[in-house]
Automatic annotation (TrEMBL):
Name the UniProt record assigns to this protein: Pirin
Pfam families: Pirin, Pirin_C
Keyword Metal-binding applies: yes
Binding site for Fe cation: 81, 83, 125, 127
Organism: Saccharothrix saharensis
Keyword Metal-binding assigned: yes
Classification via SUPFAM superfamilies: RmlC-like cupins (SSF51182)
Length: 320
């Protein structure tokens, strides 16, 4: 799992948090991701939304893509499709993904890079593996997170951020046993490169066996930890957590604690809950049913997105 690697002894360190004097968060529940097919038929593991965790405010969806070793001709992606009302954050660990959208934005994302697309008022986009990956096969591993936009930003103009691996902020745990990659948000005064409309924090941590990671965390933020690989324990109650499982922390408390049993790769994320009505239909997330109907009508009429791409009709793309 390459992502971004570094010598933790050379990095800024997170502050030491004293055990007895810190308000640690406990784990409220553990959810196991379910498997789904997306796009042209690639498999994802999805811990939310679902019957076990319908609401992860301010997040809407988390899809874990891979890790999978594709043979020649097997790699698949998601060709042109619409979005409105939220942001998609695609973080690539292994492999290559190419993004294009109807505003003219886009780029190639590879090991440790992030594509941050604000759909806002509406955009068409595609996410496809590189031609080389399709032709030759290879390792593919990534994560896509959907972040809801507040009512006041639902109609913001679309925006694309190409965050390279080199722009990711790197930190070390207080004892040097964990590497922390800050994609967005502020961690102990270290701010990640992602520009957000909704206040969130989004991290990828790699812990060495038996290492401990403690993270100061805003009391008003939600908090979750999702395991990409390996196993360990989370929370002040030391709940076991292994690959494909999501821990949801309870409210209150100003810090998170994680301890690895093996080499352990974990996403740590949370944000300020919007606490607004959510109306969603496939690729559209708004506040009311009427706004969803308008989004569907705009898409069918070709009014969604700027025409930098061939016209896409509802017959071409399934709204699901």
């Amino acid at each position: 799992m390459p992502a971004v690697t570094a010598d933790t002894l050379t990095l800024p360190r997170l502050p030491h948090l004293p055990e007895a004097a810190t308000a640690w968060r406990e784990v409220r529940r553990v959810v196991r991701a379910r498997r789904f097919l997306e796009g042209e038929g690639f498999q994802v593991r999805r811990p939310f939304p679902g019957v076990d965790l319908p609401d992860a405010d301010p997040f809407l969806l988390l899809d874990h893509m891979g890790a999978v070793e594709y043979g020649p001709g097997e790699a698949k992606g998601a060709p042109w499709h619409p979005h409105r009302g939220f942001e998609t954050v695609t973080y690539m660990i292994d492999g290559v993904f190419e993004h294009r959208d109807s505003t003219g934005g886009g780029g190639v994302i590879t090991n440790g890079g992030t594509q941050w697309m604000t759909a806002g008022s509406g955009v068409l986009h595609s996410e496809l593996p590189s031609q080389e990956l399709v032709a030759e096969g290879g390792l593919f591993h990534g994560v896509q997170l959907w972040v809801n936009l507040p009512r006041s930003a639902k109609w913001t103009p679309p925006r694309y951020q190409d965050i390279t691996a080199a722009q990711t902020v790197l930190l070390s745990s207080d004892d040097g046993g964990a590497l922390v990659r800050v994609i967005a948000g502020d961690v102990a005064g270290h701010r990640g490169p992602g520009l957000t409309h909704t206040p969130i924090t989004y991290l990828h941590a790699t812990l060495s066996p038996h290492a401990r990671l403690t993270i100061p965390w805003p009391e008003e933020f939600s908090a979750m930890a999702y395991v990409l690989s390996g196993r360990g324990t989370v929370g002040s109650d030391h709940r076991p957590l292994t690959e494909g499982e999501l821990a949801v922390f309870g409210n209150g408390g100003s810090a998170l604690t994680l301890r690895a049993d093996t080499t352990w790769d974990v996403l740590v994320l949370g944000g300020l809950p919007l606490r607004e009505p959510v109306a969603r239909y496939g690729p559209f997330v708004m506040n009311t049913r009427a706004e969803i109907l308008q989004a569907v009508e705009d898409f069918q009429a070709g009014r969604l997105g700027v025409t930098h791409v061939p016209h896409v009709t509802a017959a071409d793309e399934e709204l699901s």
